[in-house]
């Protein structure tokens, strides 16, 4: 949940030449580390797990390139769209008034074009998986879900869950892209990807609620729907803790319900560390002290996603 300054867009100068840093900042490029590791892990799982017919998915370099392009373009379109539709909100919230559009570092027309180009590039890049037709058919619905998050807080406190579901699509899409149409024609083949996606959805929901606690007062005044605005910061932190507990349950269920994936002691060691990181994340913030939200939000979550990716990949490929 995000917001900015009472300065109107028409009075903000946009004469300053935009830099690559401005564009990377617009889409929070560093936050790619939240979602990309799960797409990578799902890709490794898709290759390491036998297909329903007992064979293994065929390795094609173009599929790996396509997954990377899809991830970057979909996320770039989503973040730019978020900044577009939230620009007036961001201009009124003291915490976010220095973002690129309210501050005039980027123009509305340029960001709009950036959003359109990335959305079109995402749809086009799904054709690289051909003859696997599922990614192309699913591209527009997936894009609608990913972009739709930016509007959700205007009408539902479940906006945090919407974001979680949007990010959880990355491991499902990577799995289907590698394994082909039989992943949707034989639903049982989707189980490993769905369990990982459920963990991602619960994880993202929890940390987005923690992040939104910074804007609880503003969201309430602006009549924006968020869990902190509705339940208060203390209540929101409890809901975030429940969400992260659900995440841990799904991480336990993944190797138990999908033994063919091949997770073993490395994965379980990582799980213990992830449990500790989740506990630490919640110890960093309280209803009376949100000063370490940044540390809880970025550093801890990057550690969780990268740790799970590395441990899962080692178990699948090397042990």
3D architecture notes:
This protein has 319 residues and is mainly alpha-helical. 70% of the residues lie in helices and 0% in strands. The chain is globular. Residues 1-15 have low confidence and may be disordered.
Main attributes of the structure:
319 residues, mainly alpha, 14 helices
Strand content: under 5%
Q: Fraction of residues in helices?
A: over 70%
- The general outline is globular
Q: Helix/strand-derived class?
A: mainly alpha
Radius of gyration: 20 Å
Characterize the largest beta sheet: strand count, sense, and whether it forms a barrel.
Answer: none
Order of helices and strands: HHHHHHHHHHHHHH
Mean pLDDT: 87
- Total strands: the figure is 0
Secondary-structure blueprint of this entry?
Blueprint: H1 20-26, H2 32-48, H3 61-85, H4 87-92, H5 100-103, H6 108-125, H7 134-152, H8 159-179, H9 182-185, H10 191-212, H11 216-221, H12 227-257, H13 265-283, H14 293-317
In short:
The chain is mainly alpha-helical and 319 residues long.
